[in-house]
Amino acid sequence: LFVAAEGMYTGQFLYCGKKATLVVGNVLPLRSIPEGAVVCNVEHHVGDRGVFARASGDYAIVIAHNPDNDTSRIKLPSGSKKIVPSGCRAMVGQVAGGGRTEKPMLKAGNAYHKYRVKRNCWPKVRGVAMN
What we know:
This protein has 131 residues and is mainly β. The protein has 1 helix and 6 strands; from the N terminus they run ββββββα.
């Protein structure tokens, strides 16, 4: 299963591997991706199926490649820079669903369903407001 990238559409052909083209949704090894490219769903170790930049609207940027020890440097959504093996795969593009948190809730019911899984953190009753 893939994480949906912004700009993908139903019926689109996705290609994986080192010969895939640099098109949104394709999965390539980091060594095949040029510096400055926006990627998502990046692997930490070769074959772990992607752990970095998977939340809605997230992306990582390929900063540099080091062919001597076969590593690549990426900038994560947190701003930290990480060195990973160049054989790690990444999906080209940004994860879909960005701006999800900018929409106002409007109803208490929406907040109820959002915080329902977080046990007893909503609603917050302030004793000061009661008197």
